[in-house]
Give the backbone structure.
Amino acid sequence: MIVATKERNVLFDGFPLTESLYLSDVRPLIRQVILRYGMSEWRAAVLTNELHGHLGIYALLGVKMGILALEQFGAGEQELHVLSYAGSQPPLSCLNDGLQVATGATLGHGTISIAAQEHPTPSARFTKGERSVHIALKESVAERISSDIAHGREKHGTRHPSYWEYVRHLALDYWLLFDRHEIFEVKAFGN
């Protein structure tokens, strides 16, 4: 099945939803994620993770944060300027890939930038006109992710393929379990 989303596509006539096109561990999520979080999140998460090169936790969180930012402004893609506080070192910087795809704010367009700071955080400031919104991952969610990742490092090490399988499994679970309206703190500034 292919869903028409012409208004957001540059090359696709629709966005592919045929289950056989997706890997077996992703197939069960297609309908659930779309019903729960909408086609925008599904599309952005699929594109982000293909761009990112693996199913990443912070890349996925960047998608959820970016979609939430668009909702906060009632904006469409490419209408926001983004200042990310996630830094430029993985894994936290992977948030930036999700932010770019979800919001359409890209390095090429000059509408996303990375704040220079000593201690990066999973957060970003989104601006449209005179209004800004700061969105940050709740501390309880960040702690859960850190704990889960630490468990994987302890069990698998970081160089073994089983570690990346574990991270992928976590990302799939988080994708379905983490509602973007519940995992972030939002603070508005300006008019």
In short: The CA atoms of residues 3 and 14 lie 5 Å apart. The helical segments are 29-37, 39-52, 57-73, 95-103, 139-156, 161-177.
